[in-house]
Design brief:
Elements lengths: L2 H5 L10 H26 L3 H18 L7 E3 L4 H11 L2 H20 L11 H23 L22 H6 L6 H19 L1 H5 L4 H15 L23 H6 L12 H28 L8 H18 L4 E3 L1 H9 L6 H15 L2 H4 L4 H15 L2 H9 L2 H16 L2 H17 L8 E5 L6 E5 L3 E2 L4 H9 L6 E5 L5 E2 L1 H18 L2 E5 L19 H6 L2 H17 L7 H7 L8 E5 L7 H4 L7 E5 L7 H12 L5 E4 L6 H11 L4 H4 L4 H5 L1
Parallel strand pairs: 4-6, 5-7, 6-8, 9-10, 9-11
Antiparallel strand pairs: 1-2, 3-4
Helix pairs in contact: 2-3, 2-4, 2-14, 2-15, 3-13, 3-15, 4-12, 5-12, 5-13, 6-12, 6-17, 6-19, 6-20, 8-10, 8-17, 10-17, 12-13, 12-14, 18-19, 19-20, 21-22
Family: Belongs to the beta-class carbonic anhydrase family.
Membrane topology: Multi-pass membrane protein
Pfam family, one: Sulfate_transp
Length: 672
C-alpha cells in the first residue's frame, strides 16, 4: 500500500480490504461479547442491556462515525456512574430517558465542534491511558485464566464488587479457587496466541488466532465432559447470553424509556453527567486508538461525538447501556489488521446474530479462552518499550505518564484520567508564555514549502495549533520545522513533532526538514529535501514561475514575515556550484538589498548592483554570463525611489559641476 493510500480512507466495501475487515470484526466480536455482558453485570443492569449497547455501537455508531479504527460499546469507565444513576433515579426505564437525553446533548456538542477539545489532551496522558488499560487487562484476566470468575469480565475498577481489589483478587487464586479445566484452556490459549505471532506462515494466514483459541477451547471442554467437575467448564466459567425461547420473548428483552419523567430535574442532571463523562471517554479513547493506527489516520472528533450521540439515543430508546468509544476493542481491532470501519460494523452484526439466533452455541465458549485473548492484548498495550520511550523523553513527559498509569490502575478509568489531566495541567502551567506558531508558505520551483517557525517559549498550549498545522499538510508536501528561535519547547510538543516526523509524515509521503533543535531535545537537524536551487530545479523552472517566486518573496518582505534561513548551511551547500533562478540588476543603495527585498537565500540569484541602476559594458557582460552560461530564466531590473546616486547627479549638474570634482575619476561615466 502506498503512503497516499494509507492516508486516504478506503471504501468499506472495497474488495482489497473487506476480507481483512471481516476477520478483524470477528476477533473484535469475540472480545466484545463477554465485555458487554460483564459491564452490564458490573453496572447492576440486565445482561441484555450490555449486548444491546454493543450491537448499537457496531451498527449505529460505527456507521455514522468517521473513524476507521474506533469500536464503540458499553464502557467500563461508566459502570459506577450507571449503577449510581439507576439507584438515584429509581428505575432502569427512568435511566434510559437520561441516556436518550444525553445522546441529544452529545449531538449538539458535536455540531458545535466540541471535539476540538481532543487536541488539548497531552500525549503523556493518552499513552498512560493505553498502558494502564494494558496493565488492567493483564491483572483482571489472570483470575479468569485460572477459572476464578467471581467478578464479571469488563469490570475495571480497583475496588471490585466482591469487596476485593485488583491485587488482593490475585491472592485468592492461591487459596484454592482454581478450576483445572478452565486453567488448562486458558494457558493453552495463551500458548496458541503467542506461537501464532512467532510463526510467519500462521501469522500471515487469513485464519485469526483468536478464532482458533475459541474453537480449541470449546472442543477441549467437550473432551472434559466425562472428567468430573474439576475439569468440565460450566456455569459462570462460560459465556452467559440470555436465551429467548421465541421471537416475542426476544423482543420482550427490549425496554422503553419512562417518558412520564420528562420534566424531572434529576433526569437532566443524570443526562448531563452521562453526556460529559461519555464524551470525555470517547475523545480520549479515540485519540488513543488513532495513535495505534498503522496508517496514522486522524478520526474527526466532532463527528465522533455526533455518532456517539446517535448511538446513545438509540440505546435509550430500546434499553441499552450508554456507549462510548472503547480503547480495548479499538486496540484489538487495530491489532487484528482492520482497514476500515467495516470491521466495527461487522462486529455489531455478529453480536446481533449471536444474541438472536446462536445464544446456545455462544454459551459454550469458556471465559478463560476469551480472557487469554484480552491478556495477550494487555501485554501488547503495556509493552516495556513504551516505558523506556517515555523515560527517555524526560521527567516532564514521564511523570504525567506514570501518574496516569498508576491512577487508572488503583482507582478507575474516569478518576485516573482526571488525575492524569490535572498533573499535566500543572506541568503546562510551568511554561506559561504563549505565542502563536508562525506559519509561512514559500513558493518554490518544485512545489510550495511550508515553514513552521516555533516561538521563543513553546508550551503545551501551542500543541493544538501545531497539531492543526501539521495535519493540514498535504500528501507529497514539504515542511520545514524551525526551532532556531526557541529557548524552551514543551516535551509534549516535542513528542508531537517526533511522532509526526517518524510516523505520520512517512505515511503521508510528506518531506520534513528540522532545524535549530537543541541537542537535549533528541531531535537533531535533518534534511529530507534541499532548501536551495539545484541544477535540476533550475532547468525545470519557467520565467513566469520565477516572477511568482520573486513576487511572493517581496510580499513576505513587505509584510514582515521573512523566512528564517540557515544562510551558513546554504553557503556550504552551494560551495561546489550555483544554479541561480534569476539575474537582477539593481542599485547599490543600501536600503535595497536584493536578497532581502525578495526574501531569497544564498545561491538563488545573481545580483548585479551599480550606482544609479544603469547598464554599462561590464554589467551587460555579467548579465550575458548569467543567461548564456549559468542558465538563469529571468533578468529583472529593480528600481527604487529616492535614489542617492540619481539625486547626487542631479545636484551636481544643477550646480554646473562634474562628478570628478566631488568623487574621483570614474563616477562621471555613470552620471553621463
Amino acid at each position: 500500500m502506498s503512503t497516499s493510500e494509507a492516508q486516504t480512507p478506503t471504501s468499506i466495501f472495497s474488495p482489497s480490504t473487506i476480507l481483512q475487515d471481516l476477520i478483524s470484526g470477528l476477533v473484535v466480536f469475540l472480545v466484545a461479547l463477554p465485555l458487554c455482558l460483564g459491564i452490564a453485570l458490573a453496572s447492576g443492569a440486565d445482561l441484555f442491556s450490555g449486548l444491546l449497547a454493543g450491537i448499537v455501537g457496531g451498527l449505529v455508531v460505527a456507521a455514522i462515525s468517521g473513524s476507521h479504527t474506533s469500536v464503540s460499546g458499553p464502557a467500563a469507565g461508566l459502570t459506577a456512574i450507571v449503577a449510581a444513576q439507576i439507584a438515584t433515579l429509581g428505575s432502569f426505564e427512568a435511566f434510559l430517558l437520561a441516556v436518550l437525553i444525553a445522546g441529544v446533548i452529545q449531538i449538539i456538542f458535536g455540531i458545535a465542534r466540541g471535539g476540538a477539545l481532543s487536541a488539548f489532551f497531552p500525549s503523556s496522558v493518552i499513552k498512560g491511558l493505553l498502558v494502564a488499560i494494558g496493565v488492567i487487562l493483564i491483572l483482571k484476566q489472570i483470575p479468569h485464566i485460572f477459572g476464578h470468575d467471581t467478578d464479571p469480565e469488563g469490570e475495571m475498577s480497583f475496588i471490585q464488587p466482591d469487596q476485593e481489589n485488583t491485587f488482593s483478587e490475585l491472592l485468592t487464586i492461591f487459596a484454592g479457587e482454581i478450576h483445572i479445566g478452565a486453567m488448562v484452556i486458558g494457558f493453552l490459549s495463551i500458548a496458541i496466541l503467542l506461537l501464532w505471532e512467532r510463526i510467519p506462515t500462521l501469522k500471515k494466514s487469513l485464519v485469526p488466532a483468536p478464532l482458533i483459541v475459541v474453537v480449541v477451547g470449546v472442543l477441549l471442554n467437550l473432551g472434559f465432559t466425562n472428567m468430573g467437575q474439576d475439569w468440565l467448564v460450566s456455569g459462570s466459567h462460560l459465556v452467559q447470553i440470555p436465551i429467548a425461547q421465541s421471537f416475542s420473548e426476544f423482543f420482550g428483552f427490549l425496554r422503553l424509556p419512562d417518558f412520564s419523567r420528562t420534566f424531572d430535574p434529576a433526569i437532566y442532571i443524570a443526562a448531563v453527567t452521562i453526556a460529559v463523562v461519555a464524551s470525555l471517554e470517547t475523545l480520549l479513547n479515540l485519540e488513543a486508538v488513532d495513535k495505534l493506527d498503522k496508517a496514522k489516520r486522524n478520526s474527526p472528533p466532532s463527528r465522533e461525538l455526533i455518532a456517539q450521540g446517535c448511538g446513545n439515543m438509540v440505546c435509550g430508546l430500546i434499553g441499552g447501556l450508554p456507549v462510548t468509544s472503547v480503547v480495548v476493542r479499538g486496540s484489538v481491532n487495530v491489532a487484528s489488521g482492520s482497514k476500515t470501519k467495516m470491521s466495527a460494523i461487522f462486529h455489531g452484526g455478529l453480536l446481533l446474530v449471536s444474541v438472536a439466533f446462536l445464544p446456545t452455541l455462544m454459551n459454550k465458549i469458556p471465559l478463560s479462552a476469551l480472557a487469554a485473548i484480552l491478556l495477550v492484548t494487555g501485554f501488547k498495550l503495556a509493552s516495556p518499550t513504551i516505558f523506556k520511550q517515555m523515560w527517555k523523553e524526560g521527567r516532564y513527559q514521564f511523570t504525567p505518564f506514570i501518574i496516569t498509569v498508576i491512577a487508572i490502575v488503583v482507582t478507575d478509568l474516569l478518576i485516573g484520567i482526571l488525575i492524569g489531566l490535572a498533573i499535566s495541567v500543572l506541568f503546562i502551567l510551568n511554561s506559561n508564555l504563549r505565542r502563536p506558531i508562525r506559519r509561512i508558505v514559500e513558493t518554490q520551483v518544485d512545489g510550495d514549502v511550508t515553514h513552521i517557525e516555533l516561538s521563543n517559549q513553546v508550551s503545551f498550549l501551542n500543541r493544538a495549533a501545531l497539531d492543526r498545522v501539521l495535519n493540514e499538510s498535504q500528501p507529497g508536501g514539504k515542511l520545514v520545522i524551525d526551532a532556531s528561535g526557541s529557548d524552551y519547547i514543551d516535551p509534549d510538543v516535542l513528542s508531537l513533532i517526533r511522532d509526526f516526523k517518524q510516523n505520520v509524515a512517512p505515511a503521508r509521503n510528506i518531506s520534513v526538514n528540522l532545524k535549530g533543535f537543541r541537542q537535549k531535545y533528541q531531535l537533531s537537524d535533518a534534511k529530507q529535501f534541499a532548501d536551495f536551487t539545484s541544477r535540476e530545479l533550475q532547468e525545470k523552472v519557467t520565467s513566469d514561475q520565477v516572477i511568482k517566486i520573486l513576487h511572493d518573496g517581496n510580499q513576505r518582505f513587505t509584510s514582515g514575515t521573512r523566512l528564517n534561513r540557515d544562510l551558513g548551511q546554504q553557503v556550504n551547500a552551494t560551495a561546489a556550484g550555483q544554479n541561480p533562478l534569476a539575474a537582477i540588476l539593481s542599485c547599490i543603495d543600501s536600503r535595497v538589498p536584493t536578497e532581502l527585498v525578495f526574501d531569497l537565500g544564498v545561491g538563488d540569484i545573481f545580483s548585479v548592483r551599480v550606482a544609479g541602476n544603469i547598464v554599462g559594458t561590464k554589467s551587460l557582460g555579467s548579465l550575458e554570463y548569467a543567461v548564456g552560461v549559468a542558465g538563469v530564466k529571468l533578468v529583472a531590473v529593480l528600481g527604487h525611489t529616492r535614489c542617492g546616486a540619481v539625486t547626487s547627479s542631479v545636484n551636481l549638474i544643477a550646480a554646473n559641476k562634474g562628478a570628478e570634482s566631488a568623487t574621483g575619476a570614474h563616477l562621471q561615466s555613470i552620471v553621463d
